[in-house]
Design goal:
This protein is α+β, with helices and mostly antiparallel strands. The chain contains five helices and four strands. Strand 3 and strand 4 form a beta hairpin. The radius of gyration is 16 Å and the shape is globular. The N and C termini lie far apart (43 Å).
Amino acid sequence: MCSSMSDGAAAAVLVAGDHPAAESHPKVTVRASALASGYAHVHDDDESIVTLCARRAYEEAGIGPADVDVAEVHDAMAPGELLYYEQLGFCEAGEAGALLDSGATEIGGRLPVNPSGGLCSRGHPVGATGLAQIAELVWQLRGEADERQVGTPQIALAQNSGGWLEGDPAAVAIHVLERASTWH
């Protein structure tokens, strides 16, 4: 089960906190933004580039995986979401199936993952995929996701990957967003 390659577009508008346009919307801030390039694994037990990139994002944001309230992950193929549960630290290695079966990753669960439906529901417009994830998470943090709303999340994580290098993504981007504690 793979998402179809498709055309699409997404956009994000970032403004400084003191910009007049920032007054008209609930604020969402970027707590962390980590990017990484894949590498040639020397040992079989080398960590995935996703795990290394996630660690950087968590450190920069001053949080851990348990602090994430909602996530959008790159699920271009059905098993991708399960692999990323483990690589992002949402569960231990080998426990992704149990996490899924527990209902924790559903919209009403403790860690909703891909409430948008992910790439299998919208297709994979390669250049727009990452920004579509960001848009979904901003809507979630602002409480504007309609029937997909996951409650009142405070911290959101977007993980996007591309290419392939020796069994690992060739490029990874992980962003941590936060709902401002006071909304105008």
